[in-house]
Structures are given as C-alpha cells and as structure tokens.
Amino acid sequence: MVLNLLGDKAEILVYYIIIKDIEGGAMLGFILPAILAGGAFLGGFSMELKSLAFGEGEVIPRKYTCDGSDVSPPLAWSKVPQGTKSFVLIVDDPDAPIGTFTHWVVYDIPKDVGGFAEDLPKVKEIEGIKQGLNDFGYVGYNGPCPPKGHGYHRYFFRLYAIDLESLGLPPQATRRQVEERMKGHILGEASLMGRYKRD
C-alpha cells in the first residue's frame, strides 16, 4: 500500500505502510521511506517530524487524548542525518502542574523505519522496538489529559537520531534511563508540538 503522507510544492515524500501481525492479533503499521524528490533521504537537511492528525501548534484531535480513544497519532519523519542507526521518540507536556510530564517513550527504533501508523500497540516490544514507562506508570502511549480548566497545554513529540543500533536497555525503561544512554550519541533532533485543553 503506497500513501503520500507528507508533501508540499517543494518536495513529495512517499511512504509504504507495512502492516504486520503481532502477538494477540493486533496490527502494527510501520512507515518506510520510499522516495524523496528534491534531495537525498539521508543528510543535507534538518530532520523533520510530521503527523497527518495535526500540524505544528495545532490542537491535537480528541481521539488521541484521554477524552477519546487515547491511541497514538500517526507520525512520519524524514531528512535523517547520515550515520543514523536508530531513533528515540519522547513525548511530554512541559505545562503540567507538577512539572514536565512524560507521555510516551520509544527507543531502539530501527533506522529503516520512517514513522508509525496510528495506534502503536501498548506493548513492551514490537519487532525490536522497545517502549518505556510513561509518567502514568504504563507502557506505551497515553495522550494529553490536562486538568480541566487549566487551559491549553503543549505536547512536544521529539524524535532523536542516534548513532547506536540499540541503547542496550530492556523494555519498560524510564525516560531518565533512556536519556542517560543517549548522551553523546545524538546526531539530530526533530520536534512537533500540538496543543490540548479540557474545559
């Protein structure tokens, strides 16, 4: 299945979405980069992170929050630095009353994966991709859930290109453990910020 997920007048990025069966019958969608017009896929550009669900600074749809299905949004990245061997994805809310609150930690994402389809299963490990503990105390993604009446919170999706194939951590690692292993190995970073509030 071929989809045009990202594109503008300057370039068009085409992806294959590979659907795989995993334990329990769940379906997993990997987004694999296929074609990049206007430049080499690796190197020469600042890494980009985008979503079909919302744009930079836009409101995150209810579906991807605790008020909806609470599934992870579709994500796709491009313009990866030369030498990248894996990726790390961290999602947080710096506006939480108790301080920065972590919603998602994913690591050991293979270099040939260019994103995730919607609803990455909330399991410890998928095809070598490991998920850590978020600040809710769960594995995988838990979406925006700010206090009612607290106004808009910002949610940062941060992707890191790493020069290691693996961080050498087991599944269910904490954000602190992941960030400690990343030190000195980050080749590039991209971010996407969405907003959400509960009235």
The biggest beta sheet reads:
6 strands, antiparallel
Task: Give the low-confidence spans.
Answer: 1-27, 33-44
| Main CATH class | Alpha Beta
Shape: globular
Order of helices and strands: EEEEEEEEEEEHE
Proportion in helices = under 10%
- Give the terminus-to-terminus CA distance: 39 Å
Q: How many structurally independent domains? A: 1
Compute the number of strand runs.
12
Mean pLDDT: 84
- Could you please say which CATH topology applies here? Phosphatidylethanolamine-binding Protein
Secondary structure category: mainly beta
Q: Give the C-alpha Rg.
A: 16 Å
Number of helices: 1
The CATH H-level superfamily is PEBP-like
CATH-defined architecture: Alpha-Beta Complex
